Amino acid sequence: MTHRRTTQVTPASEGPGHTTRTSSPRDSADPSSLSAPRAVPSAAPGLPQVSEGRSAEVQRLVIDWFSRNARPLPWRDRDASAWSILVCEVMSQQTPVARVLPRWREWMRRWPTPADLAAAPASDVLIAWDSLGYPRRALRLQETAAAIADRHGNEVPHDEDRLLALPGVGAYTAAAVTSFAYGRRAVVLDVNVRRVLGRVFAAVEHRPASLTAAEKRWARALVPAQDHVEWNAGTMELGALVCTARNPDCARCPLLDACAWVAAGKPSDPTVVRRAQAWAGTDRQLRGAIMRTLRTAHAEDAAAVPTHLLTAATAALTADDAEALAAYPSPLRTAIGAVRDLDADGARTARLVDDLVRDGLAARDDRGIRLP
DNA sequence: AACGCGGGGGT
DNA sequence: ACCCCAGCGTT
């Protein structure tokens, strides 16, 4: 069903002018949303008070900039369904937009409503997820689809609390759907928004990794009562395109003259020792390899790699027995062989596959591959 | 608050 | 090599 969507301002081709683009049809009543922010946020460590005048000026600049610089992303189309927006938000969790685009198109073509996704074999879902990463998101999204189909009449909930109750939907995603799909006021706080607000108002290059309740309150008070959708989308877009984590393009920033971080001389954060990112040789890499190989083998020949053979793979991997392995169909053999190359003694592979099985890999039977 | 969780592109 | 990305769930 087609939900009314808010107007995402499209790149308006001309003139720097029209700041105010009023929102289009939204949910009529807005009873549960936050009360309009009057007062400036309560002070918290590193989060300065912001005068109403300055807040309003920054809001105006961001919204105006967004009206002229928004990327024409398909989920910003007026006729994009709430479901399509939820899918895009989940796919975008920790994954750059450019990588999401092709998978999102394919998903929406195949599964245009939650019920469609809920009815699909899990193996199809994982294969369509492809290499977006964090494949558990795909499984949670399918669980969410089933919940929406079964308990919400196949319509994405309008209520932020009900959105939050869905698997794989956290504070960010619930707020994003509330704002972008339904045009209701919400505090959309992703890594981009946090960075932009932190620089402009708090004069720090990067916010701390963890998001505190105090920062949420602070950010909430900065969301305007009007044009909040454009503010949410605009701060995100500004963070993605201009106020980037590294090498921000301050020369093109509409907030150049309003930015506390720039005014302070763009100080760098005190260097924090970051743990070297381990990847090669880790369980994580190995598990990713198992995923990829099984996915590929199943996609190439689903009959050869049904779920019960995945269970058999466990035995073969554990036994480290070439003869036993030879008993399995070729695509599966290839998959196991490829994984083995990463784990010469086989112990870790065996344990990981065993974990996969225990967590339900084998239990799903005809639903296809079930991985963590 | 701190972890663990994929994978690819940019610098 | 390392950093970063429209985060979430668990401990």
UniProtKB/TrEMBL annotation:
<dbReference type="InterPro" id="IPR011257">
    <property type="entry name" value="DNA_glycosylase"/>
</dbReference>
<feature type="domain" description="HhH-GPD">
    <location>
        <begin position="91"/>
        <end position="241"/>
    </location>
</feature>
<dbReference type="GO" id="GO:0051539">
    <property type="term" value="F:4 iron, 4 sulfur cluster binding"/>
</dbReference>
<dbReference type="GO" id="GO:0034039">
    <property type="term" value="F:8-oxo-7,8-dihydroguanine DNA N-glycosylase activity"/>
</dbReference>
<feature type="region of interest" description="Disordered">
    <location>
        <begin position="1"/>
        <end position="53"/>
    </location>
</feature>
<comment type="similarity">
    <text>Belongs to the Nth/MutY family.</text>
</comment>
<keyword id="KW-0479">Metal-binding</keyword>
<dbReference type="GO" id="GO:0046872">
    <property type="term" value="F:metal ion binding"/>
</dbReference>
<dbReference type="GO" id="GO:0006298">
    <property type="term" value="P:mismatch repair"/>
</dbReference>
<keyword id="KW-0004">4Fe-4S</keyword>
<dbReference type="InterPro" id="IPR044298">
    <property type="entry name" value="MIG/MutY"/>
</dbReference>
<keyword id="KW-0408">Iron</keyword>
<keyword id="KW-0378">Hydrolase</keyword>
<dbReference type="Pfam" id="PF10576">
    <property type="entry name" value="EndIII_4Fe-2S"/>
</dbReference>
<keyword id="KW-0411">Iron-sulfur</keyword>
<dbReference type="InterPro" id="IPR003651">
    <property type="entry name" value="Endonuclease3_FeS-loop_motif"/>
</dbReference>
<dbReference type="GO" id="GO:0000701">
    <property type="term" value="F:purine-specific mismatch base pair DNA N-glycosylase activity"/>
</dbReference>
<keyword id="KW-0326">Glycosidase</keyword>
<keyword id="KW-0227">DNA damage</keyword>
<dbReference type="InterPro" id="IPR023170">
    <property type="entry name" value="HhH_base_excis_C"/>
</dbReference>
<dbReference type="Pfam" id="PF00633">
    <property type="entry name" value="HHH"/>
</dbReference>
<dbReference type="GO" id="GO:0035485">
    <property type="term" value="F:adenine/guanine mispair binding"/>
</dbReference>
<dbReference type="Pfam" id="PF00730">
    <property type="entry name" value="HhH-GPD"/>
</dbReference>
<dbReference type="InterPro" id="IPR003265">
    <property type="entry name" value="HhH-GPD_domain"/>
</dbReference>
<protein>
    <recommendedName>
        <fullName>Adenine DNA glycosylase</fullName>
        <ecNumber>3.2.2.31</ecNumber>
    </recommendedName>
</protein>
<dbReference type="InterPro" id="IPR000445">
    <property type="entry name" value="HhH_motif"/>
</dbReference>
<feature type="compositionally biased region" description="Polar residues">
    <location>
        <begin position="19"/>
        <end position="35"/>
    </location>
</feature>
<dbReference type="GO" id="GO:0032357">
    <property type="term" value="F:oxidized purine DNA binding"/>
</dbReference>
<dbReference type="GO" id="GO:0006284">
    <property type="term" value="P:base-excision repair"/>
</dbReference>
<keyword id="KW-0234">DNA repair</keyword>
<dbReference type="InterPro" id="IPR004036">
    <property type="entry name" value="Endonuclease-III-like_CS2"/>
</dbReference>
